[in-house]
Amino acid sequence: MIKEAIYHRPKNNFAYAYDEETLHIVLQTKKGDMDNVQLIYGDPYDWKNEKWQTETVTMSLTGSTSLYDYWFIAVNPTFRRMRYGFYCKDGDEECFVVEDGIFAHLPTDISHFFCFPYLNKVDVFQAPDWVKDTVWYQIFPERFANGDPSINPEESLPWASEAPTPTNFFGGDFQGVINNLDYLEDLGVNGIYFTPIFKAYSNHKYDTIDYMEIDPQFGDKETFRKLIQECHKRGIRVMLDAVFNHSGYYFPPFQDVLENQEQSGYKDWFHLWEFPVVTEPMPNYDTFAFVSSMPKLNTENQEVRDYLLEVARYWVEEFDIDGWRLDVANEVDHTFWRDFRQTVKEVKPEAYILGEIWHDSMPWLQGDQFDAVMNYPFTNAAIDFFAKSEMQATAFSHAINRVSHMYPQNVNEVAFNLLDSHDTPRILTLAKESLARVKLLYLFQLTFTGTPCIYYGDEIGMKGGEDPGCRACMEWEIDKQDRDLFAFVQKLITLRKHNPLFGNKATFRFIQTTDEKGLIVYEKQTGVKRLIVMLNNSDSNQYISKELLKEGDTLEEISLPTQASSHQDTEREIVVPSLGWRIFELTE
């Protein structure tokens, strides 16, 4: 037993309130080092005959990485408080883990134990419930649909007549989205994430000129209001993109700085290094990356804070949007985001606040800032395994288990799980144009914990490399759309909506991975019902023992469109076709 590898802290993802009555406790141990882990817990004030009263419950092994095992238990302390420790057993060797260390015998002094002082309702991480049942669709407005040519930018090109570049325009607008809401409703999505819609110079709109105005190429505020209303009629939520880390070059306060230099009343709105302020050959002020046209805003300045918080309030209050996606969120100070959350939630408590952070984001996910982050660790693992075949099955399970145990469960349930976006190549291109691999990606995404997002056009087989290639015009000609892929995604979304085993109400765990076969098998479970998903990421048929199903009272195979049914199971084995799947629903 490697005692030095045992780790627990009574906070964050290791000990947290899942709801008003339930605590989740996690212990991390060296991989393969423990046979049995138990939680010993009790109320700190519950004593009889001078003896502290405790209960002991066995913890479940919920996942492993290449280095660690994770043990989990949910408990409901009667009076919402508890002291606790762990009993760990490895063969004949055993130990007791408490806050003060690791002991051969259970300490008698209660002060040695870990402490969860009290489960206060206000401290429970609470993201909007509706997000758990949402399938998002990301729209890059300039490239989705042109519904009103009269407002096209000058020199706009005919729709899809040329390849996308960083500077060309095709006239995508709000009316185009309104005209195609029936398409989105038919697909089954119930959330739209728009990249920036505010007045800006570029086609991507991440260089804001006026945060209080719609970009004229998209329409006016009344058209936007109509868009929101039409979405809400269909049960579709709308999330906007807030670019508060930096402004655009033509943002009036920055133009004032360039014109008036040290005399500018806005000089403290930015992080200026020296005067005169220059943009070429390199900016002498903080920017997004080193892009001189995107000066970084000083969110510690009170005037900047007041302005941006008013922006946050205005679009929720005036237009009833349902959420904010926060660009480059990790480069903005935490104090600003705390004020941002308070401002938004005062107007609409059920608004969704999503941060763009590509790494471990626990500091932002403690209930006082974001509801979720864009789950790029999930994205990277899924792409490396399914699309690129650069990761083996076991390594993939380790990566996903790390993601699953990185945050509390109530955070994971609203994590924004994307496969690609306007910042990455499209999944069909990443998969070397293998539709079979794209289907495996969607199948995993739409059965995993979190809130999945589809990038516009992926569902009909659009291709595209790095920006700007991934930002091509939506293909609206039916004969150029992959309708089989559309039907496949549509079916998965329907299952996720109507079968609880596909969504967040079911727990997730891997039950088998085979590197030489490119095979993963995982289980979703809720109550007595189980979903067994078998995914074959190899070019040959693979075989799985039927014992894995542990057949109960009922066994039903769930079929999806477009997979050939040429496989023939044997008496003892299930055949999983090459680059294919088998899905079984069981009830004990």
Number of helices: 12
Overall outline? globular
* Chain-averaged pLDDT: 96
Strand content: 15-25%
Which radius of gyration do the C-alpha atoms yield?
A: 26 Å
Poorly predicted regions: none
Number of strands: 29
Q: In this structure, how is the largest beta sheet organized?
A: 8 strands, parallel
Structural class: alpha+beta
Strand order of the largest sheet: 20-19-18-17-14-13-22-21
**Share of helix among residues?**
10-25%
**N-to-C CA distance:** 36 Å
Q: How would you sum up this structure, described in words?
A:
Helix content is 22%, strand content 25%. It is an alpha+beta fold. The strands form seven sheets. The protein has an eight-stranded parallel sheet with strand order 20-19-18-17-14-13-22-21. Helix 7 (376-387) runs antiparallel to helix 8 (393-406). It is globular. The mean pLDDT is 96.
What is the strand and helix layout of this fold?
Blueprint: E1 15-17, E2 23-30, E3 36-42, E4 47-48, E5 51-52, E6 55-58, E7 60-64, E8 68-75, E9 82-90, E10 93-98, E11 101-103, E12 114-116, E13 136-139, H1 174-179, H2 181-187, E14 191-194, E15 198-200, E16 208-214, H3 221-233, E17 237-242, H4 252-260, H5 302-319, E18 323-326, H6 334-347, E19 352-355, E20 372-373, H7 376-387, H8 393-406, H9 409-412, E21 416-418, H10 427-430, H11 435-445, E22 451-455, H12 483-498, E23 507-514, E24 519-526, E25 529-536, E26 542-545, E27 554-557, E28 573-576, E29 581-587
Parallel strand pairs: 13-14, 13-22, 14-17, 17-18, 18-19, 19-20, 21-22
Antiparallel strand pairs: 1-2, 2-8, 3-6, 3-9, 4-5, 7-8, 9-10, 9-12, 10-11, 15-16, 23-24, 24-25, 25-29, 26-28, 27-29
Helix pairs in contact: 5-6, 7-8, 7-11, 11-12
